[in-house]
From TrEMBL:
It holds the Pfam family UPF0093. Its EC number is 1.3.99.-. It comes from Lusitaniella coriacea LEGE 07157. Keywords: Cell membrane, Heme, Iron, Membrane, Metal-binding, Oxidoreductase, Transmembrane, Transmembrane helix. One of its GO terms (cellular component) is plasma membrane. Heme binds at residues 10, 91. Catalyzes the oxidation of protoporphyrinogen IX to protoporphyrin IX. This is Protoporphyrinogen IX oxidase.
Amino acid sequence: MAYLWFKAFHLIGVVVWFAGLFYLVRLFVYHAEASEKPEPAQSILKEQYEIMEKRLYHIITTPGMIVTVAMAIALISTEPEILKSGWLHIKLGFVLLLIGYHHYCKRLMKKLAAGECQWTGQQFRALNEAPTVLLVAIVLLAVFKGSLPFNLTTFGILGMIVAMAAAIQLYAKKRRRDREKMEQASGQGEVLSGAQ
């Protein structure tokens, strides 16, 4: 019975942790793009994003990580022989990468707050895809365990990375076109108002 409770809270922790990580880096995108706004909007937006980032990181994301890790340790304590499984070692390696990503986000958050981060919104969008790749790998390992077809999985994950990179580039291109159209429209409006 304890195993089922640990597993339930482990899954809840994973959902909370990933939700926090996904939203946190999305806030970084908006924070970075606030630099393109005129004052006073720029200062107001940056201050608001800084508050939201800190609260999300400390109240949701970090507790989600702690619950996930604590419940994983509890799960392993109920079946210590599982530590001999190769798939679990690989999964734990991905989890360590995710914990590193989590702490790297804190570092970026501090740099954004200090005005020292030079990352663009586009770079943050790309960074936001990293936990997706880790999530897929971790879940596949947890579900398939030792029977995971690694050749097919590796090919699928690489394909997913390429697809995400292409989607990010297409989105960036669309945003540039939309911005150019808006600038042209505002330029034509100024010309017309000047002619009157």
